[in-house]
Write a structure and sequence with these properties.
- With about 375 residues, the protein is α/β, with parallel strands linked by helices.
- The protein has one domain: Alpha-Beta Barrel (TIM Barrel).
- The strands form 2 sheets. The protein has a 7-stranded parallel sheet.
- Helix 1 packs antiparallel against helix 2 and helix 5 packs parallel to helix 7.
- The two termini are about 15 Å apart.
- This is 5-methyltetrahydropteroyltriglutamate--homocysteine methyltransferase.
- One of its GO terms (biological process) is methionine biosynthetic process.
- Keywords: Methyltransferase, Transferase.
Length: about 375
Amino acid sequence: MTKAPFHAEHVGSFLRPERLKKARQQYTEGGLGAEELWDIENEEITALVEKQKEAGLPVVTDGEFRRAWFHLDFMQEVDGAEFIKLDHGLVFSDNTETKAEGVKVVNKLAFRDHPVVREYEFLHSLKGEHAARVTVPSPSMFIFRTVTEEEKNVYQSEAELFSDLVQVYKDTIQALYEAGCRHLQFDDTTWSLFLGAEKDKDLVLSGGLLEARGLNPEETLDMFVNTVNEAIADKPEDMRIYMHVCRGNYKSTYASSGSYDAVSEYMFSKLNVDALLLEFDDERSGGFEPLKYVNRSDLQVVLGLITSKFPELEDAGLIKSRLQEAEKYIPLEQLGLSPQCGFASTEEGNILTEEEQWAKVRHVVSLAEDVWK
């Protein structure tokens, strides 16, 4: 059970129970101490892990229950980064705006005493015979930090910043490995910058962010790939690195559209990760043709054919036919099935109930058991 690839997968985050939401709010307002919150989080994560096992998932996560955001909580704890309030949030589809929060760089970046290690150690104590996976934002997520004039005193260019990020992630990998972690996932929305979405939608990931930063698309793609590859170059042989590529997931809305065509040669031929978790749940993702660039028999490609945004269960026959279509480009044994994203990339969560969430998870497991029997 602990040997990947897994044919039934999930992206990592789960809807936060009401008790946890209330506890985190109390902590924010000063009515609950850090260790009291930690204890409540532990109890809720323990229950969550049992539910994942009961649903038949081979790999468990902590659901990102200790985070408000899938990325900012990790980023702000990196030495040299600082959490900040913004004037405006990010604009997703249906004009849905996120909380106005971000991270800025105030000093050289380094990985020291990061809480992600303690958090993983608790998850590790619960995993039993299952695999346990921790999620962290991909190095390229730091491109979304708030750029200020004062930051130019720290880093003169994105390339200089990414050079330090390589070491941050090398240290992250090593610290988690020593804590027992063998499955690490990078979550990345920045690939959506290159997917050629319609500019008139003016969404955060398709509204000219590269141009606003003065970045050349091809040079930036190279920088993203090289940073990840350098960061994982020395990973232990028995540790698997996943990358989830996302188009945005906030309260059941999205941030960008477009097929993988524009990035396929980079993503499928140049990234040295062990597995890719890809969104393919609707027409925004395009077809499977870009998968022809997968040139490694050891790269697992997990197809996110089940949406985490809405409660309706997908037709089983349709999902099986889509897997057969993908098999034209990649052998079935190299493929997996999952929701296209987590159920709660932020603590607000998508618009469905916990029971509907678990029905989705069980649907993935059931389909995988039938397809890969």
